[in-house]
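Predict the holo structure. Ligand: S-adenosyl-L-homocysteine.
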Amino acid sequence: MTIGILAALREEASHLLADLEPGGRRTRIALRDYTSGTIHGHDCVIVLARIGKVAAATTATALIEHFGVDRLIFTGVAGGVAPGLRIGDVVIADTLVQHDLDARPFFPRHEIPLLDTSHCAADPDLTGRLETAAQAFLDGTIWQRIGPDVRRQFDLVQPRVHRGLIASGDQFIGSATGVRALREALPDALAVEMEGAAVAQVCHEYGIPFAVMRTVSDTADDQAHRDFPAFLGQVASHYAHGILQCLFEAGIPPAGPARTDPQPPLNAPGLKARAT
Ligand code: SAH
């Protein structure tokens, strides 16, 4: 079993790369460096996906096609949109949706054309393990990694783990108007980011189990850009590292048998009728 780990930003990948044994083997494909090695006995490939849905989808596809990964984990930061979410909380995706996908009037808003769905579900087993790992990190080593000054700077009181819907799109949401529109369109969304649902679609199409974890870096409002780089370096990178360490220490069993129910062909009569 090989696990692909995608990070959206450099700061998030840096600590993880240092854990790879024996030092990591680098392969360069399409402007990205894929580093292979083992973490706690698990074969892994770690890559910086860069920002946005196309970047994330391309990277996920390369992980599957070139490196044969059979599990995929995305780690990154996100804007918290549900009331009660605080900076420093963790959101684990149950399902993901592309909030900027809109092919009306041919398909309902958010539906992925010819796939007959708008929401892609994360793998329940891997997601459950990631949630347990996130809780273990928040109950465990978090304050050994993040000192009191940084804790005060970002007002990290008692970070919590949430599980639910993540919305992705090729926009940084950083205004009260933007976050309001998103809440109206997708009232269940917990967080917004720019990659997760694209990875989810690729994994859905390939039948690869995946999970997405996001540290809340902002609340997608007018303050969203404030202290963003500092948060990445001083908080989010430790979360990504600490949570994945807990995940790998607990162990990830091999993936089950490959999917035997292929997706319906894209020219299935029902889909064709709706697309025209
Ligand atoms: N300042 C960064 C760019 C950040 S873009 C740089 O210079 O590299 C935002 C990244 O964080 C994306 O990867 C996205 O997935 C996530 N993100 C965090 N908050 C977000 C928000 N409010 N809206 C959209 N994406 C957000």
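The CA atoms of residues 27 and 69 lie 15 Å apart. Residues 8-9, 51, 76-79, 172-174, 192-195, 217-218, 220, 224, 228 surround S-adenosyl-L-homocysteine (CB under 6 Å).
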